[in-house]
Write a structure and sequence with these properties.
Blueprint (H helix, E strand, L loop, with lengths): L1 H30 L3 H13 L10 H6 L1 H6 L3 H22 L5 H23 L3 H30 L1 H36 L10 H23 L5 H4 L3 H9 L6 H19 L1 H24 L2 H16 L1 H16 L3 H31 L1 H16 L2 H12 L3 H25 L3 H9 L4 H29 L13 H10 L3 H34 L1
Helix pairs in contact: 1-2, 5-8, 5-9, 6-7, 12-18, 13-16, 13-19, 14-15, 14-23, 15-23, 16-17, 16-19, 16-21, 17-19, 18-19, 19-21, 20-21, 21-23, 22-23
């Protein structure tokens, strides 16, 4: 029994020794140069039970960001490069800077102004003017004396600023020394999980990159913040000089040349494709006119009753009561007609977004290549500020509600495309294979299997598109769009706080009603399928 226990202990000790040797070999492979040091440091970190650092890396403290760059710890590199530059800026301000220079210049200007006023007092003929100029000169002279005193005080603080900078630099160096091995151990853990995605060892390329970045960023920032009057080249980009080098003298600036060229191309395209653009506007106007006729042309009690009943049937009595209250607010405050115009604008935008977005989403969900090609365009449509693409909209399609709908489509279509594609890609392959095995055609597979299973994601995209289209109602008023957006724009122009808030609440209620009805209809459809 004793021999068996002893053998087990010997075996366990041997296994531990083997594991330790394997770990040391792995650490040395990861660290490269000075592998023995990092073996000891990482073992100390693993054996430490407290949250405080237990190792100090002298080279990391001395070299600072250069050590981080050489070991590819770029997050630490940028953090402490910025902190050390801040410390060196304080040291430079104390050593060769002039902290009170701004106040000294201000005092000089004030004294010149006081001297000018005293001269005007001497030249004056009336006693009232003499007294007024003399009093003004005395006040400005007092202000100049205060500014000069502040300049002297700032200059006296130079030693304090320098000492503070040295203290900060020492603190930052110590922090880097204590944190370096901790951070490097975490990078080692990532390297063990995925060696291909994590850099290891000390790289000459990274060292040179870190030295170049430090040598460029550090001196320029320190010079800019410590010298009273730095080079004009560092204060503003020399676009005039660059334009002359590229275009030659007397040929204008690069901005004017590019802007003129773009404007000429846009005008030429608009003239050449006038019939095409007019056809698009006519199609959008047809959809908008149909919705406007249904909402504004019908008697208001009929429209209100239809909306409330729809809310009841789609989302239940509580949403119907809220819808009735929201419509009452809109009607009582005189926003009924402009709200119906807003709903028509949103309805036309959403209809066109859904009609084009869902088929595109289905295509992109089935074709990864097509989605990769379209993804940058979708990113551009979502990230480009709306005010930017209003310019080509005006150039090609003019102003008014139909061009506003086209701008809204650009902003609101990406969610329904993305979420439709996501839903299509989320349909399990096993279910599709089973449907094909039972004889389903491609059309039946799409209609009866893929679209129903992707419907939650599609409806989420439709809901997001509705809300994003509604958020554009204020922006499209800038190009002649009507509805509640026009009311908000006028309130902003005249700083009318009350009308602006009331119109904003009307938009809020419209958004909430549409969201509740759409979400309620979808949940009810899901419940019916579950039953």
């Amino acid at each position: 029994m004793t021999d068996t226990s002893t053998d087990m202990k010997v075996t366990a000790a041997s296994n531990i020794e083997v594991d330790t040797e394997a770990l040391n070999a792995s650490i040395k492979e990861f660290a490269g140069l000075y592998g023995d040091y990092y073996c000891k440091a990482i073992h100390k970190i693993h054996d430490n039970t407290s949250v405080l650092p237990v190792t100090f890396n002298l080279w990391a403290a001395v070299l600072g960001p250069l050590w981080s760059a050489s070991r590819a710890v770029w997050g630490m590199f940028w953090t402490f490069l910025i902190l050390e530059v801040i410390a060196w800026v304080q040291i430079g301000r104390g050593l060769w800077g002039n902290p009170g220079a701004d106040m000294a210049e201000r005092a000089a200007r004030q004294r010149d102004r006081a001297t000018e006023l005293l001269q005007r007092a001497q030249d004056a003929t009336e006693q009232a003017d003499i007294d007024r100029f003399t009093k003004l000169a005395g006040n400005i002279q007092s202000a100049a004396d205060r500014s000069l005193a502040q300049a002297d005080a700032g200059q006296a603080e130079a030693v304090t600023i320098m000492v503070t900078g040295f203290a900060l630099l020492i603190v930052f160096k110590l922090i880097q020394g204590f944190l370096a091995n901790q951070i490097y151990e975490k990078q080692y853990s990532k390297w063990r999980i995925d060696p291909e995605a994590t850099e290891s060892g000390r790289s000459l390329r990274n060292t040179i990159s870190g030295a170049v970045l430090t040598g460029v960023i550090g001196p320029l920032v320190i010079y800019k913040f410590t010298v009273n009057s730095s080079l004009a080249l560092l204060d503003s980009f020399p676009e005039q000089r660059v334009s002359e080098l590229i275009l030659g003298e007397g040929n204008g600036t690069l901005f004017s040349r590019v802007a003129s060229s773009m404007e000429d191309r846009i005008d030429g395209t608009a003239d050449a494709g006038g019939d095409f653009f007019d056809g698009i506007v006519a199609g959008v106007r047809a959809v908008l006119d149909a919705l406007t006729l249904a909402l504004e042309g019908s008697p208001w009690p009929v429209v209100m009753l239809v909306i409330c009943v729809t809310a009841w049937r789609a989302a239940g009595p509580r949403v119907a009561i809220f819808t009735a209250a929201a419509l009452a607010y809109i009607a009582l405050l005189g926003y009924w007609e402009v709200t119906m115009e807003t709903v028509a604008l949103v309805g036309a935008s959403v209809t066109l977004c859904v009609a084009m977005g869902i088929p595109l989403g289905i295509w992109f969900g089935k074709s990864h290549r097509a989605y990769r090609i379209a993804e940058p365009v979708l990113d551009l449509m979502q990230t480009l500020p709306a005010f930017v693409y209003l310019i080509p909209i005006i150039a090609f399609f003019g102003t008014g509600n139909p061009p506003g709908i086209l701008a809204t489509i650009i902003f609101g279509m990406p969610p329904v495309i993305r979420l439709t594609a996501l839903g299509m890609r989320g349909v399990p392959e096993s279910i599709k294979e089973a449907a094909v095995a039972f004889g389903a055609s491609r059309a039946q597979l799409l209609k009866d299997v893929e679209i129903p299973l992707a419907l939650p994601s599609i409806m989420a995209g439709v809901n997001q598109t509705i809300l994003m289209c509604l958020s554009m109602v204020v922006i499209i008023s800038l190009i002649g769009g009507g509805g509640l957006g026009k009311e908000i724009l006028e309130a902003l122009q005249y700083a009318a706080k009350g009308p602006g808030l009331l119109g904003g609440f009307a938009i809020l209620f419209v958004a909430m009603v549409i969201d509740r009805i759409v979400q309620g209809a979808f949940r009810q459809d899901e419940n019916d399928k579950g039953c």
